Amino acid sequence: MCTRYFGGIPTVRPAPNFNAADDAEILRGAMKGFGTDEDIIIEILTQRSNEQRQAIKEHFKNVLERDLVDDIKSELGGDFEKVMVALLTPTSEFLCQELKNAMNGAGTNEKALIEIICSKSNEEIGQIVETYESLYERPLVEQVCSETSGNLGRFLTLILTKSRNDCNDIDDGEARAKAEELYAGGEGQLGTEESVFYKILAHESFGQLRRIFEEYKEVSGNSIEQALKHELSGDYLEALLAVVECVQSPANFFARKLHDSMDGGGTDDDTLIRIIVSRSEIDLETIKQEFEKIYDKTLRSCVEDDTPGDYKRVLLGLLG
Questions:
Q1: Measured between alpha carbons, how far is 253 from 238 in angstroms, rounded to an integer?
Q2: What is the 3 state secondary structure string of 58-103?
Q3: At 303, which helix (H) or strand (E)?
Q4: Which terms in the Gene Ontology molecular function aspect does this entry carry (predicted)?
Q5: Which residue, among 242, 253, 235, 239, has the nearest Cα to 290 in the 3D structure?
Q6: pTM confidence score
């Protein structure tokens, strides 16, 4: 049986003894009349799984005849509103909205596209592709093709068309052959045959890639990261490195992205919200542990320093 390449510890789990009707009534009371009880809203929505939040939304719609998201939007504002709406959105739909936002307007946010697309399994990609077309009546791969170009566009397109082998059975002989192919296309010659990199990194399973990278170190003497940085540059390099990092440690990849979102002047709140919300039921606890190992400070302390008020309290609630 093939194994899923992601593993980790979540910070948000389904609440025991969950009752959607009770939660819905409490939330309605917290937003009724003058003033809003933000404490109750935060406590309930950060301590429920996404599936449970969808059940609360359904009760609002079918029994209370109200739209919970509209109520939240009318009561809250700014990044506090943004993160609460994200929590109330099915995860694949939320990520589709993030992809759409990354391609809206005059420029394209390639970093967001790379983070979302390059970190996903075939199963997750399939859900996102299906949801995107349902939401926007346009194939995701078509829009990504129109917003990106060159090897980056080709690489993302291959991932979105689910070219990756689903099975993590390891073939040592094939791993050696692919490692030699990568070496021959880069360090082993003058110039770089860039297509070799995206074809292998988009097609091979994460388990097989892990073995290929081990073999590459033996063939070349350099790590695959060193080779890629020597041979390539720009967003295409960043996309390939994202896959390499997710092969070796998804938690490390997301810890670094979270650090970057809070590093320097200003905070990249879109990235901060996207990762904390979307990874909370997958591996956010593992990401927290990795963050502390890498940066010698806690993710919680960084969020406390970089975010204000109720927005901060929601993020801290999700961090556990």
A1: 12
A2: HHHHHCCCCCHHHHHHHHCCHHHHHHHHHHCCCHHHHHHHHHHHHH
A3: helix 299-306
A4: calcium-dependent phospholipid binding
A5: 253
A6: 0.94
Using the predicted structure, report yes or no on whether residue 51 has a pLDDT greater than 50. Answer: yes
The full DSSP string for 5-34 is S-----S--PPTT--HHHHHHHHHHHTSSS
Query: 50 near 281, Cβ under 8 Å?
Result: yes
Q: Read off the pLDDT of residues 111-139 as tens digits, 9 standing for 90 and up.
A: 999 999 999 988 999 999 999 999 999 99
Within 10 angstroms of residue 132's Cβ, the number of other Cβ atoms is 24
Q: CB burial class (10 A; 0-12, 13-18, 19+) of residue 46?
A: buried
Is 197 within 8 Å of 182 (Cβ atoms)?
yes
- pLDDT for residue 173: 95
User: What's the pLDDT at 34?
Assistant: 80
How far CA 208 is from CA of 152, 162, 249, in Å, comes to: 22, 16, 14
Six token digits for residue 252: 């490390």
pLDDT at 7 over 80: no
Chain segment 15-32, per-residue pLDDT in tens: 999 999 999 999 999 998
> What mean pLDDT comes out for the span 92-102?
98
Q: Find out whether 209 and 247 touch, Cβ atoms under 8 Å.
A: yes
Residue 9: count of CB within 10 angstroms of its CB: 15
CB 107 within 8 A of CB 101: no
Residue at token pair 């905070």: 267
